[in-house]
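Recap quiz, item 2
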Amino acid sequence: MVERPTTPPPLQGPTAKEKKYDRQLRLWAASGQQALEDAKVLLLNTGPGVVGVETLKNLILPGVGDYTIVDDVDVAEKDLGVNFFLEESSLGKSRAEETCKFLQELNLEVKGHAIQKSVEAFVEKPTILDNYTLIILIGPTKASGLLENISQHAWKSSIPLFYVHCAGFFSHFSVQLPAQFPIIDTHPDPASTQDLRLLNPWPELLIFMREKVGNLPWLSDHEHGHVPYLLLLLHFLVVWKATRNGKPPASYSEKKEFAALVAAGARTNNAEGGEENFDEATANVLKSLNPPSISSGLRDVFEADDCKILKNDSANFWIMAHAIEKFHTANKGLLPLPGALPDMKAQSSDYIKIQNIYKAKARSDLAEVTAIVRQLEKDLDRRTPIEDKEIEAFCKGAQFVKLIKGRPLRVAKSTESLDWSDRAEVLSMELENQKMVGLDSLLPIYFAFLALDRHNDEISRLEQSRREPNPLKDIPGARDVSGAVFPSPKFAESAHFYTPAVNSEKDPKPWPRFDTPEARETFDNVVKELDRANGAELHNIAALTGGMVAQEVIKVITKQYVPVDNTCVFDGIASKTAVFNI
Amino acid sequence: MTTLANGPKPSRERWRYLDNFLNKPGPTSDPDWLPGEQTINGLETSKVLVIGAGGLGCEILKNLALSGFKDIHVIDMDTIDVSNLNRQFLFREADVGKSKAECAAAFVEKRIQGVKITPFNGKIQDKAEEYYMQFKMVVCGLDSIEARRWINATLVGMVDMENPESLKPLIDGGTEGFKGQARVILPTMNACIECQLDMHAPRAAVPLCTLATIPRQPAHCIEWAHIIAWEEHRKDEVLDTDDPEHITWLYQKALARAQEFNIPGVTYSMTQGVVKNIIPAIASTNAIIAASCCNEAFKIATSCNPWLQNYMMYSGDEGVYTYTFETEQKEDCPVCGNLAKNLTVNPNMTLQEFIDSLGERAEAQLKKPTLRTEEKSLYSQFPASLREQTAPNLTKKLSELVENGEEIGVSDPAFAIAFKYKLVFSS
Ligand SMILES: [Zn+2]
């Protein structure tokens, strides 16, 4: 073997932390990791308490900054059969402290705190919630007032709140995001992000196209077979437009015709019987020749009041969105060029040249947007300028930004019906549509969990009235005429009578239409199955739900990818999920 | 029945939550099912094999132990790396370098009283049919498609119609980033992994001529360093992608090449990603997929509810989306079907080109195939004498070697069985 000096270490070799987190940094990069490490997550735990602990496991491993477990239960024998983060020696000790301790072992860089208190006692002063970045509340809560309290405070303070149920083979979680939750880095599918702007080429691109393709028929076979497809399409667009009043192919059939024109330009008198670059060109006709348009997500952003009317303290997002909207109008519907180029058959130098032409254009678009942003900042008298890299990220992903409109949680109470008038139509349609394609909607699972909440609220109300010695102060309906307290109802019976009603003045037809036998049967089966569970968690379902909730928490904390909007149910019998905007 | 277990038998109170499902029927459980002692006994005596003790495997072991299984075996040939610690929660920094199977087994056994976990630090191919015959079912958490195909073919091959015990359900999970899938395979009864192979097509390889003459992407430069430069400068050494010196060498070669062609973007991390074919992996996705697999294992072992028919795909990139459906068993599946699979080929392609294409075709994915027709050997990788004897065929056109529609047998050292294909000439 040849003597060879050992390779010196690379200048930008990975740090110990980069090594440990390598597999996730490839998903959310250093910026996402920083957001995660800055986050303080609060778990308000009740019931068997497994799903919350499993969620935390999936947040502690990737390095969430800080977690707090609030739980007032002492570890019992039955906990050891379902919760992995306890051991024999935990018996009789605080469950908050024991689970906190065993979770802490997973990652010493994370700070864990245990608070041995009931959720009610902990949120007695709800401002305590303001110490946290995100709250995970495990249901059912003892009474609806508690859930309402937490939900209202989180809403007021714009703290994302996850409300989770996990019982038997079913689970549910609802995400209460702030009223406006914009996401810039949605990580769209790379195949869908190509904006080559072929219908609106700029001078530098056209000059290079003429230089390379001007004498197409006289090119050598090698050169001809290596003209990048993007230039071929530009060239044939010029040819096409010359005979069509300067109009590019628009309809599907015109595009087909155009593709045939391109294909006919390939040389076939070679060993392969064609040319790869021409194949790529024809394959990209449908995808690349679309007039500029904006996604529905971006339209939502442009149309939001916060985008139209800027204030001195508007979030950076809205200043940038406003600037992009101005750019969009000034450039006849174009968005800033993202600047990325897909790989294509080409000589290295030609490809790099085109790549640089696209990058230069992206930079000049970015400069235009930045100038608008700076002017807005001046006009609004804002002190801290938005960072350049933030504007750059927005320009790159403008087409794919999303605005999620958070909504307060629905709180099921024993004393009043939920008002569904704003969602009745959409949700009825969900039931109808699923029936039409021969599937059972999973919506009844969500309603069964609401029924469970309502049932718990009722029990708590009855218990309270039992403790109340003075019947005059009694809660209405808690005692019969003789003054005796009613027996506590069983869940299966009480759920049966629980059908959410709508405001009959706004919607004269009663809803939901559980009169469809399918929906009624699903609902009844879910209730029976929940009754079988009798509050028990199955470890698998808790682990699975903990995985789903953790994914969503990570998306909310990093503001990357797109979180659930806003309610998700899992059916562990059919192995299916569904998402509803409730 | 728990004589196998470690420590004293804990009281049944510990399993109070689980027993709600084992002692009572539900609205969708099989009406003929008998809940109670018999079901509990069945669960506790079901011997389960877990293949893989990595991201999925750690979760699977925890989940099975907390689902009431008492006798679990686990196979893994890997040792613990520091990059595992962001998700493989049974391992600590001090465990780096130790056997995954042994570490994981010891941890779960210590944490959960009454469960016995038997590790095997080695390859699945080291074990014979008799070994696999002892299990009630197999749960797979692997990142290698080859190992999946091997165990699939082995379990399909073990099925003896006279002996119902020979049918071992295979529950398989896989993840990538925020996505994953879980599937239940009843060998010979429904679609097997080979039937579904084209759903997991490999990424198209970059043509060698692009790497050699016209690189455009940073990955092209890295692949060039990996495939061409290493062979040129260090051919006597085996490339070890876990050796930082090797990766650094490749990175610097790739960087120099990229600079020569003005290609931006080669980084150390990308070099590692391309060379090791790194798939992003996170704890939460592993939790979802592993739990889904174990949920199915639990339902199969207890009959307490119906199980998955037969594939669930999960995607968490944009909201939460699952697609649960039944994949069809294929008549021409080379493993569980009766008919040879049609492969459409250009009759003018050489045997060498055909062999290369077998590695890339989604429905074949065979890297070192040996091919024969019913009468003659077309090309044999081993032994060397036969390889030399058949090598001249490599430059011949397919039309000179086989008839249109002729059946060929293809074997590959990565698999225990031969695949049957029917070569159909394209017109
Ligand atoms: Zn098959």
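Residues 1-5 of chain B have pLDDT under 50 and may be disordered.
Chain B touches chain A through 86 residues (CB under 8 Å).
End of item.
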